[in-house]
Write a structure and sequence with these properties.
CATH architecture: Roll
Strand order of the largest sheet: 1-2-3-4-5-6
Order of helices and strands: HHEHHEEEEEH
Radius of gyration: 25 Å
Number of strands: 6
Distance between the termini: 80 Å
CATH class: Alpha Beta
Number of helices: 5
Oligomer: single chain
Shape: globular
Length: about 190
């Protein structure tokens, strides 16, 4: 390309254009991510607030008797994936499918959020401790039919969303249920 005196023409290579466009898209995407994080309370010190809002949205549906407070129905695959990490959701879904084929109840045969099928919850309190930018622990305390109860949730953040990686009740953990079942299946397979 020739240029006339006094008016130089810039020559852009395809690579230069691609780099410039990539940089522009990166700036726009980063700005959108920061804005979304601020809206959802998941950036910086707000991650505890985002995790607490997630846990609050679950447990507010459990206050009262199970005959009135219906809790969170986990009947669909989408509902399970909306509350649990990919790994834990897969365990729940696969177990339900194989249990149905065998005509047996699934390993998780109660409500995972309270650890039983029936409840009468009052005096709900939720405390969230941030364990890093992507991990938090929520301790949920309450009275259930007048007796003290406690559930601890291990939370992981994926993008702007929080998911449950494990639940600990007085009797054990949700992942522990699946580990015991896998050990039993393994033992039965060896016989």
């Amino acid at each position: 390309m020739t240029s006339s005196p006094g008016y130089p023409h810039a020559q852009w290579s395809r690579r230069g254009i691609a780099v410039a466009l990539s940089a522009m898209f990166l700036i726009v995407a980063t700005d959108a991510h920061v804005s979304a994080s601020r809206r959802h309370g998941t950036s910086g010190t707000g991650s505890e607030a985002g995790a607490k809002a997630f846990v609050d949205s679950i447990y507010q549906r459990y206050v009262g008797s199970s005959s009135i407070a219906k809790g969170i129905p986990l009947a669909s695959v989408g509902a399970v994936r909306g509350y649990f990490t990919v790994g834990l959701a897969s365990l729940i879904i696969e177990d339900r499918t194989s249990a149905a084929k065998r005509g047996e109840p699934p390993v998780l045969d109660g409500d995972p959020f309270v650890g039983r099928q029936d409840w009468d919850i009052a005096d709900l309190a939720i405390e969230v401790k941030d364990s890093g930018t992507l991990k938090s622990t929520a301790t949920v305390t309450f009275t259930d039919s007048g007796k003290p109860g406690k559930v601890v949730l291990e939370l992981l953040r994926s993008g702007n969303e929080w998911r449950i990686a494990d639940i600990q009740w007085e009797s054990g953990t949700l992942r522990g249920l699946f580990r015991r079942k896998a050990a039993q299946d393994d033992e039965a397979g060896r016989r």
